[in-house]
Amino acid sequence: MNYPIWYLPSTGGGFLIALIAILHVFVSHFAVGAGLYLIYAEKKGLRENSQGILSFTKRHARFFLLITMVFGSITGVGIWFIIALVNPAATSLLIHNFVFGWAAEWVFFTVEIAAAFVYFYMFGRMDSATHLKVGWLYFGAAWMSLFLINGIIGVMLTPGAWAENMDFWVGFFNPSFFPSLFFRTFIAIMLAACYGYLSASFTRDTEVRTAMTRFSAGWALVALAAAIPAGIWYLAALPGEAHSLVMGKSPTIAAVLPPAAGGLVVFLAVMLGAGIFRPSLNLKPVAGVAMVSALLVMGGFEWTREAARRPYVINEVMYSNSIMKNDIAALNEKGYLRSALWVENRDPAGAGRSEAGRELFIQQCYACHTVKGRNNDIVKATANMSYRALVNYLAKIHETRYFMPPFAGTEDERKALAAYIAGDLHGKDAGEPEEALTADDQGRILFEENCSSCHVPDDLAAPLEGQGKNEIVELLGKLNEISEEMSPFAGTAEEGESLAGFLDSLNKGE
Ligand code: HEC
Ligand code: HEC
């Protein structure tokens, strides 16, 4: 709210960040793990006195240098570029709190880059013992950059006491620091092995190819096996809300789990089948499949980690829409439009009501919702809701759906936003009702507010057939027993009666 918003209605900034970030981490973890991989590949060549393996290692080092130094660096800068544009407030808050962490990271980057160049250009031109030391120097610096960035990224998900005291070290060594560090280290080795597997598929010398395919697949499997307990430990370190989002409460996370799990199965199958048992099957397309499946696993993990923070961008401190948790009460009091710096309409009730509503959408919802885009389209999400249902829905949006921030603003502002969504986006009636609501209207609105995002009334008629109103009231209190996705109806007893009345009427041919 203190910065202008870069509004791309059908794309969404979050999607751009995800795209760049996932490609970046796929390369940056490779950059860390490859340090270790190259050292041990070189040692293997030396030990077995194999010129073939040594020249494989050198070729792989060249590929590694190109990918990490060109693609890795560009996407790394790209992340800074995109986060600063999409969420300047969060970027600024992290820079102000962790500037020495970032600075230290950049020092290690410099060491890392210098060591990588020396490693490649001096391959075979230096005595091997010194050359291996350069490899270790590279790996040490690369791993330290992971160590540092891991602390800062971790605080966004599990701030612990930092959310209160903003103490550098408390934030840096946050509750998920160590599990995440171990997990990422193993994933880095696994990815490096996968890139090695890819390199091996390009090797003409069959003997070297077989040896390096087996070597890579072995590393990948061991690293993966080590990553699993680390991942479980990581999951256990998540605070209650994030944990339940990961375990099924977040539709965003539930959506990426199948492709990520599929990727994991394919990856395992390729490494075992076309790595350990039949290395001769390591053909270029097979290695390509392994890379894609590893990307799915990595992408699924990063996506989950990002979505597990919701509704926050920095857990317990700043919501995804850049509003500070501690500012909500004041904004409800004073009005959001009057407090925000970059809005044109400051009056939610006047002639510009739905224009003001549009601005409120951009400021508060666009961080996660597109307008007619592929990703979490607000038009689809609200298709079955009327103006009045939306007004009520917004009043308790965070209570019913934890992963969305509370609406920040006055009642007039809530109405303006509902008017924009129902009126401008859907062309529905967005006026205030003339007369008082009948009990029937009340029930229908409660349905739209609480159930319509997942059900249309007609679908519930059959399952509720033969149940009396009282049974339905009872059922509403234990919806969670029907499906994990539902929570028990949280309205008052009176509201429960109205809603049950509405549901009951579905089977009465009304
Ligand atoms: C932090 C991210 C985030 C923000 C900010 C956010 N939403 Fe959502 N919203 C979601 C997610 C995730 C879903 C679930 C999508 C799904 O079911 O696939 C959702 C679903 C919805 C739904 C469908 C009903 C439901 O309960 O699932 C509505 C309506 C909705 N959002 C309205 C809004 C409005 C209005 C705002 C702005 C005041 C907003 N959202 C802000 C993430 C967000
Ligand atoms: C977040 C999505 C979601 C919301 C919101 C939701 N439900 Fe459901 N509901 C489900 C899912 C998922 C199922 C189980 C799958 C199915 O049977 O369709 C289900 C099943 C049901 C069933 C059993 C249907 C059957 O076929 O046996 C009833 C009854 C029901 N819901 C009522 C409600 C009522 C009433 C509300 C509003 C107070 C509500 N639901 C809100 C997702 C939701």
Order of helical and strand elements: HHHHHHHHHHHEEHHHHHHHHHHH
CATH class of the largest domain: Mainly Alpha
Q: If you consult CATH, what is the topology of the largest domain?
A: Formate dehydrogenase/DMSO reductase fold
Measure the end-to-end span. 47 Å
For this entry, what is the oligomeric state of its chains? single chain
Structure write-up:
The chain is mainly alpha-helical. The protein is built from 22 helices and two strands. The chain has a two-stranded antiparallel ribbon with strand order 1-2. It folds into three domains: 13-319, Formate dehydrogenase/DMSO reductase fold (Up-down Bundle), CATH 1.20.1630; 326-432, Cytochrome Bc1 Complex, Chain D, domain 2 (Orthogonal Bundle); 436-510, no CATH class. Bound molecules: heme C (2 copies). The site of one heme C has 15 residues, from α20. One heme C is lined by residues 251-252, 310-311, 320-321, 364-365, 367-369, 376, 381-382, 401, 403-405, 407, 453.
In short:
The protein is an all-alpha fold and 510 residues long. The chain contains 22 helices and 2 strands. It has a two-stranded antiparallel sheet.
Topology:
Layout: H1 13-47, H2 51-86, H3 88-121, H4 128-157, H5 162-165, H6 168-172, H7 177-201, H8 206-237, H9 240-249, H10 251-277, H11 284-307, E1 312-314, E2 318-319, H12 328-334, H13 336-339, H14 353-364, H15 378-381, H16 387-395, H17 397-400, H18 411-425, H19 439-450, H20 457-464, H21 469-476, H22 493-505
Antiparallel strand pairs: 1-2
Bound molecules: heme C (2 copies).
